[in-house]
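For consistency, the fold was encoded as tokens, as this record shows:
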Amino acid sequence: MKMIIQIVRKFPYSQYGAFLFAVITLSFSLITEQTVLATDSVVVYSGRAERLIKPALDHFQKTTGITVQLLTAGSTELVNRLRAERARTPADVFITNEAGALELARSLQLLQPILLPEIETTIPAAFRAPDNSWIGLSGRIWMIVYNTQKINPSAINSLLDLAKPAWKGKLAIPTANSEYLQAGASMVLAAKGEKISLEFLKGIRDNAGNEVYGKNRQIVDAVAKGKVAVGIVNHYYIFRHLAKDPTAPIAPLLTDQDEGGMGAIMNVAGIGLTAHAKHVSAANQLIAFLISSAGQKMFASINKEYPVNPSIKADPVLPPSSSFRASGIPLTRLATLREPIIQEIEHLGLR
């Protein structure tokens, strides 16, 4: 930089000023970029609630010394942000609460393949993109929570049963902008077609009435208090509630297990490597930790989610994965199904 400044002083600005200003600006840009790249840190965009992912990120930061910078928002909002930022994005990894947002990001070329050899042996193909640009971290089942004092669970064989008039005034559901509702309904669309998915959404809209909640834990609480008999939530909210209040009159109900049924609706929270990551090495270290035994055990014990690494056992309070049949719909289809489902939800006027 001293040499550049000396040249500026030697030659008149009228002849060389513009050229040298550009050189100086480029030099500062290179220095700044090198400084950023040298920084031992990783920037995380997370669509998951902070309380669900931060314990794992804190443990990674403490054990590796790599600083984790975390930004949380809705998964769809973060996809839009990545799309707007493109090469300017500070994000190195993108964490979501369902696979559809990750697949959408991949289809928009916002992700790049994760080049970690352990992925092939730790993450089943069903829980990752074909090019490994995103991988699942933990599994969840969209299931029914019911009040044990109000109903006999044998009255429900399928999630689709909740759309029947018999459940009017007895059901609680997520809001229309819930990514869980959108992903779950997308699975119904894939498994049963447009007509049945439309009937399902219309039925649960009518049956829930005003019992529409922004948070899954609010649905579980409403069922536990007897405001409604049943609700639709991700499974781990049920087991977290029971961990705090073992006497709560609630229980989970796995449905659609009959021959010919669509199977339990299972999705994954996951992570992708952004196409313009500035800290690829640190990002890969974080991803490697999250799919390692230590990282997977944290998801299992803290969040009551299913580890996607089959060598790691789920929390013993959960139904063993061997005890139920999950839907065979590829998670990669969720991105293309998202828009049709959102249109159905808007058309039906779900709240």
In short: Residues 38-139+268-322 form a domain with the D-Maltodextrin-Binding Protein; domain 2 fold (CATH 3.40.190.10). The chain has 13 helices and eleven strands. The first helix runs from residue 2 to 10. The first strand starts at residue 41 and ends at 46.
